[in-house]
Structure formats: structure tokens, C-alpha cells
Specification:
mainly alpha, elongated, transmembrane, membrane, transmembrane helix
Amino acid sequence: MKTSKYIQAAIGIIIGFAIASLGIFLYLKYVESTTGSNLNDTITAIKSQGVMGKVITIGAIPNLLIFFLLLRLKRDMMAWGIIIATAILTLITVFV
């Protein structure tokens, strides 16, 4: 069964947000392990320093790898969904 191009784009958006969330979490765990503090203290410190936008940007980097993987697999609409998710994350970064 062939899925609609809109459904494929929606799946790409979901994948984009999921991968970015995973990237943000892994970065926060890395910072937590290097500073020796817990996750709540790490998030509080990042917010107080005003670098949350940069953390979101670092977390979105894995979307680039997924984008090229989807292009290689000929899943163009899913790759388009990754672009949309990254654009939304960019807007969030601007306003955070």
C-alpha cells in the first residue's frame, strides 16, 4: 500500500522532532556528565546563561544525517518533513 505524500511528510516532521529531542537529551546528558551535576541543575544553568537556543541548535544537527539518509532511500517527502521540522526548530531558537 502506497502512503500519501502528506502522510509521509507528517512522518518526516515527527521523525525530525524526535531526533532533535534525542539530540538535545544526549547533549544535556553529556554536559551533565562533564560538570558532575544532575539534569535539573544542568537545564537551570543553561536557561540562566541564556544558551537554550544554542542547545536546541546542537540537538537538531542529527536531522542533517537523517535528511541525507532519507534522500538516499528515495523518501523525498519524508526528507521534506525533516526540513519543515528543522525550520520550526529554527523559529523556536530565534524566540528562545
